[in-house]
Amino acid sequence: MPLLLIGYGFTSLDKGIVKKTDREFSHELLELYPGFSTTLDNKLQFAPVVSVYALNLLGVRGRNNAIKLV
User: Fold this and answer.
1) pTM score, whole prediction
2) Each residue's pLDDT tens digit, 2-24
3) In this structure, how many other beta carbons lie within 10 angstroms of the beta carbon of residue 28?
4) In angstroms, what CA-CA distances link 64 with 32, 52, 57, 68, 69?
5) Range in 12-16, 30-34, 35-39, 55-59 the model is least confident about
6) Mean pLDDT, residues 31-58
7) Cα–Cα distance between 44 and 70 in angstroms, integer?
8) Torsion angles phi and psi, residue 22, rounded to 5
């Protein structure tokens, strides 16, 4: 699955059919919901870090940590 998503990302960088499909999909969404905008994605980028610390505070410890990975 990760390779599929990475491949999709690389193909969408080009001016190929994936880029065209992305633009058409975006255009259709804007027609259905004009004026819609959100800043939720700006906050969601911190969700993984917040969840790690929240789980640690609740007593759930991960199997790995930064020291073990080095």
Assistant:
1) 0.46
2) 888 888 777 767 667 777 887 88
3) 10
4) 45, 11, 16, 6, 7
5) 12-16
6) 89
7) 27
8) -60, -45
DSSP 1-68: -HHHHHHHHHHHHSSSHHHHHHHHHHHHHHHHSTT----HHHHHTTHHHHHHHHHHHTT---S--HHH
**Do the Cβ atoms of 29 and 22 come closer than 8 Å?**
no
Tell me how far CA of residue 43 lies from CA of 30, 38, 47, 64, in angstroms: 22, 10, 7, 25
Single-letter amino acid code for the residue at 53: Y
